[in-house]
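Entry 12.
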Amino acid sequence: MSPKNVGLVWENRFVQGVERVDRELLDAEALVGHLVPAGSMFAFLAGHRQDVFPDGEFEDLFPSGKGRPSIPASVMASVLVLQTLHDLSDRETAEAFRCDLRWKVATGMTLDHAGFDPSTLVYWRKRLAKSDRSHRINEAVRAVVEETGVLRGRRKRAVDSTILADAVATQDTVTS
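Predicted 3D structure (tokens):
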């Protein structure tokens, strides 16, 4: 395989992953969901992530239809939101996803889920940035905020474009 084709294989090696609707034996929400504070962002995402970030809204990021399934879009969008809210690096985010029960509940993972490599976040942000709807996660969050009125009367800006900031390709290069 020539070096020219290697990039093509990298770009097309994933197909759209979808979240399972049936629970697995070690489902974090079923086993420890009661430990997540009601009204928290973790609890909100546990109950609504598939409605706020439906997998179908991200199909355009995986046009080839070939390769192994990606991490479901509803999961990765939730991870990107939590990363931004907690101001974490990609490495810290991957660790929180792997080790923090609240993150497992919020993202619908099992207790024994091994997590993902931090570069997965760079990969997802890169795909989002190249798409026609690069701000779809921000738009979904903004719609929830407007619908629920959760920030009514507050003056601070709660939603911005930091999820897709220029640090897309370099955020973890510095920490690697």
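Annotation: The first helix runs from residue 3 to 11. Strands lie at 14-15, 68-69.
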